[in-house]
C-alpha cells in the first residue's frame, strides 16, 4: 500500500470573497496563507501529504494556470502530474480525468481527492491511512468534520451507523445541501451529522466503473479528452476541449457519491478544518495579538482591535477602528467590517460588470519562464518588468501599438534580432518593432531582469509630424498668396486698373 495513495488536488474556483487577494487568473489557492513570504494554500496542501504512504500528486487545474502550479511546486521541491482543464466542468469530470491518468501508471491506484484551498491542522494522514484498506476493498470514503456551529455555507453528511468490519467507518444516511440556519441548528443539536470536507478516497478503477454505471456520457467525453490530450510547454497534459465540454458540469458528490451503494463516512475526530471562504474566516483561524488583531506585512495600529490588517508591499497604518478588514494590494484596497466580509463577492460582481482588470489579475503574473509585472500603464506608454528564470526561454513580442524598448537590468541573456544574435547585459538596450517577436534565453546563472517599455512608434510620429509641417507650410504659403491678392484688390483703381506703386 505504500506510495499507492495518490493525492489528487483540485485547483478550481476563484474564491471571490477573498478579493483583492484572490483574482480570476490567480485565485485563492495560489495566494499566501499568512501574507507575503509564506506558503500558499496550494503549497500547504501539497506538503501536508508529502509523507510516507503517499505517492506523487496529480494536480487538476485550469489550463491557463499550469505555469503558476509548476512554479509553486518547484519552489517547495515537489513534482506532480499536472492536468489542465480547457474549460471548467466542476469536480466530477476533473476527478475522473485524474483517475484515468492515475490508472496509466498503477491499475490499483487509490485517489485521495483534496481541495487545494483549505486549512487543516491535526494528524489527518493517520486517519486517511487507516481507511486505505476499506477504500482498497471497494468502499468510497468521504471524510466528515464534526461541526462546531450551525454553518449554512457547508454541505452536511448524516451518520447511518458504524460498519462492523472497519473501525472508524460509518454508513451514510444522506447528504444535505447547504441548509438554512434553522435546519443547520437542528442538525447540530441532534448530533450525528458532519460537515462535508470535500475530501474523499477511492480506487481509481472503481470511480471509472461507477461513471460507467451512472454517467456513461461523461465517461465517454472525459476518456476522449484524456486520449486526445496534448502537452503544453511545461509538460502539463491539456485535455482536449471539444470532448471535455461534453462532460457533465456537476460535482462528484452529485454524479456518483449520492447515488452509489459503496459510499461510506469517515469522521475526522480531533481535526481542525476550515475552507477559509471569507476574510472573517482568515481572522478566526489566525494567531492573534492581545488586542485580537491579526496583522500580516508592514502594519502599524493604534487603538484598534479585533481586526484583520494585511499589507503586501507598503506600510499600512490603522487608527481607532474595531472589527474591520483591511486588505492592501498594489492595485486595490479593501476596507470592510468583519460583519460584512461575506459581501465582498458583491463588490467582485460590480467589478466584473464594469470590466475592471483588478478582478481578473494581479499586476504580477506567473509565466512558464518566470514572472512578468506591470509597472505602469498611462495609456500613452506601458512599462513591464520581466524576470526570466535560469534556463528560461521566451519570445518578447512587440505590442503592435508602438516600439518596444528593452533594457537589461540585471543578469545576462542572449536575444535574436533581425540583424543577428546579441548579448544582453545590465544596461544594454535594444529596440524592436511592433510586429517583431524576439527570441530570448537566459543562459546565465541567475535570474535575468528585463525592463520592457512600449512607446508610440517614433518613426511613424516623425513621418506624421513631417506631413503636418508640410501641410502647415502649404497653408502658410496659401495664406501669403491670399494676403497678397487681398492687398492687390485693396490697391486697385475704381475702374479695375492697378494704381501706380
Question: Could you characterize what this model shows?
Answer:
It is a single chain. The chain is of the alpha/beta class. The protein has 4 domains: 5-277, Spore Coat Polysaccharide Biosynthesis Protein SpsA, Chain A (Alpha-Beta Complex), CATH 3.90.550; 280-353, no CATH class; 369-455, Sandwich (Jelly Rolls), CATH 2.60.120; 463-501, no CATH class. Helices cover 28% and strands 31% of the residues. Strand 20 and strand 21 form a beta hairpin. The radius of gyration is 31 Å and the shape is globular.
Number of helices: 13
Radius of gyration, whole Å: 31 Å
Secondary-structure-derived class: alpha/beta
Counted up, domains total 4
Main sheet: strand order: 20-21-22-29-24-27
Q: What is the CATH topology descriptor of the largest domain?
A: Spore Coat Polysaccharide Biosynthesis Protein SpsA, Chain A
What's the CATH superfamily of the largest domain, by name? Spore Coat Polysaccharide Biosynthesis Protein SpsA, Chain A
* Topology, number of strands: 29
**Main beta sheet strand tally, sense and closure:** 6 strands, antiparallel
**What gap, in angstroms, lies between the N and C termini?**
117 Å
Mean pLDDT: 90
Measured by DSSP, the beta-strand proportion falls in 25-35%
Shape: globular
- Percent of residues in helices comes to 25-40%
CATH class of the largest domain: Alpha Beta
* Residue runs with pLDDT of under 50 for 5 or more positions: 492-501
CATH architecture label of the largest domain: Alpha-Beta Complex
Organism: Alloyangia pacifica
GO biological process, one term: GDP-mannose biosynthetic process
Keywords: Isomerase, Nucleotidyltransferase, Transferase
Domain Nucleotidyl transferase: 7-289
